[in-house]
Amino acid sequence: ARLSVLESPTPDPVSGNPDFSLSDYTPYETDQERRKREREEAAAARRAEIKARKDFKLALDGAKGTWESDTAQNVSDYSAGLKSWTDFLLRKHEIELKYYTDREDVYKRFNLTEDEDYQELLKKKADYEAEWLKKNAAMKVEEARRLQQTEETQAQMDFHTPGNALYGKEEALQQKLFEIKVRYLKQMQAAYNQASEEWHNYQVQIE
Predict the structure, then answer these.
(1) In 3D, which of 123, 107, 130 has the Cα closest to residue 50?
(2) C-alpha 151: how far from chain center
(3) Which of 36, 99, 124, 133 is spaced 20 to 30 A from 180 at the CA atom?
(4) Distance between CA 97 and CA 87 in Å, rounded?
(5) Using CA atoms, how far apart are residues 186 and 166, in angstroms rounded to an integer?
(6) How confident is the model at residue 52, as a pLDDT?
(7) The pLDDT value given to residue 106
(8) Contact 119, 126 (CB under 8 A)
(9) Residue 48: what pLDDT?
(10) Does pLDDT of 162 surpass 50?
(11) Where residue 16 falls among pLDDT bands split at 50, 70, 90?
(12) How far is C-alpha 95 from the geometric centre of its chain's CA atoms?
């Protein structure tokens, strides 16, 4: 009887040599490719040797120690009421950015700028900075809105306060509120890059 497809034996990768497997195959390598591979392997070995050294690890530990100390002080200051939430976040950003920079400097000092860990560090720093720009813009907008609301409330109070220049003057009140709105829209817009969608959305509201 004929074997089915599932029952058929798998043909050998190399006819006549059942002991051969694809894992035994070594692609052809030119002298130039070989020299390049050897250089890369030697460089990787050198980097691994440097990263295993005690002075390199101590340098990274020093950067981490500074980050931990600064972070603890920032949290303590905020908890004690010595700084606002906004100031706490700004200081936190400074500390985080410095930690990235300090580690970059360590890798540079030990000639490890080609190392994959250094490249990953640069990528994480770029991602962090991009995320911070979004958060910082949001904080500036929130602060501007808070101040705008405060000024608008004050203008309404002035409108109802006898003896005030705005008292009972509806047209003057509306002009005042319009000026406040435009001024703070410009502040919110300034929180974003001119090429961003947010910037142009604020421009439409201003115009």
Answers:
(1) 107
(2) 34
(3) 133
(4) 15
(5) 24
(6) 84
(7) 95
(8) no
(9) 83
(10) yes
(11) low
(12) 13
